[in-house]
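Please predict the structure of the following assembly.
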Amino acid sequence: MKLKECENFVVLGVFLGVVGLFSALVLALVSGVTAPAIEKADQRAKKEALEQLGLGEFDNDPTAEKEKCKFDGVTFMALRKGGKLVGIAAESETGGGYAGTIRELVGFEPDGTIRTVLITDEKETPGLGKNVCERRNKKTVANFWKPEDKKLPPNAILDQYSGRKAGDDTKWRLKKDGGDFDGKTGATVTSRAVAEMTGKTAETFAGHRAEILAKFGATEVKK
Amino acid sequence: MKYLSDIIRGIWKENPVLVLLLGTCPTLALTSSASNGVGMGLATTFVLVGSNLVVSVIAGIVPKKIRIPVYIVVIATFVTVVDLLMKAYAPSALYKALGIFIPLIVVNCIVLGRAEAFASKNGPIRSICDGLGMGLGFTLTLTMLGMLREFLSSGSIFGVKVITAWTTDFMLPAAAPGAFIIVGVILGLRNHFRRTAAIRAGKLYVPPEDIDCEHCHICADDKKD
């Protein structure tokens, strides 16, 4: 009997099973081969983001387990240079965006002042919510041939948070909600989510600062 | 020569987006910028060539009753391979932009459509050519559409501002409704020119053969019963 015309469901089931098994084998192989490269790409992306925070150079691996601690869903990472604490990066996320999760990386100086706010992952609407989150060099025909600026591209919404700190009577809301920060027209939901998330991160850092600094081995706090 | 015509057919005469009208979901969702169009097109091309090759090889032994699930497994395997490879080696910005759409290649009609309508009836080399042609046609169309939409919404092409004074984005072409409008206008123009060309040549305009159901057996089998 030819396999092509077969209608016996046992044979069909076995055939499908064999096909599935074979595809699982292929996937296992490819997954095994790409796993180290994926890991490396993740690490690289994370390190680039940490460098962009502008907290100064660091030579440790902030993503290593011993340099991390977690409070209220915010992960704090220590950035060190020669063993000395130069800054703290805080990673947090919110589901309050317009679409999906927004992930944020905030760079703190040891005294709790925000240096830089960076959105590392979002799925906001292009042209609206994305403009709140994106830091991107504007390329034009005029500057096309010039070498790219190494500085972190500005973003008016995110840059508002630089230099602010929790406890300074800062209201972590949009101006139209009675707070201190501007939102972007047409992207209120995203702006609001970013303001709330940044506020929560800053408050958490202020609330647990002694513990965090003790964990990172930097008890002396310059006033 | 036959191989070459297999490739060229996919790019123009039976362009998957503009003529066969397949794969509309990625076409509309992903062409908000030109670079997204290129990335999605190339990923789909890779899947198309791979699945066409495998399907043309195994078509002879796959039982007729379960050929669709078998093809889907083959396609899904290729898509997952692309996903893993892109995660590992593609620039992180590109993966971020395309990430959620890559798994959707599995249900892209072009891939299953070519497996069923072409690869299962032709040899491996012709199937590869067909996959390549269809994939390139898809990529070119997506890139063109992406360039058009990007230019109309922000005055830039591939992220480079061509009109420097254009500072505020015009949202319509970059959003989904704009995609429908632009694709509709392109289709309308294409049909209009083809019809006038046919009438001028004294012929009746006949759409390409592959559009009718005869060449695809996904539902035609039921009709025969």
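Residues 6 and 130 of chain B are 5 Å apart (CA to CA). The longest strand of chain B covers residues 156-157.
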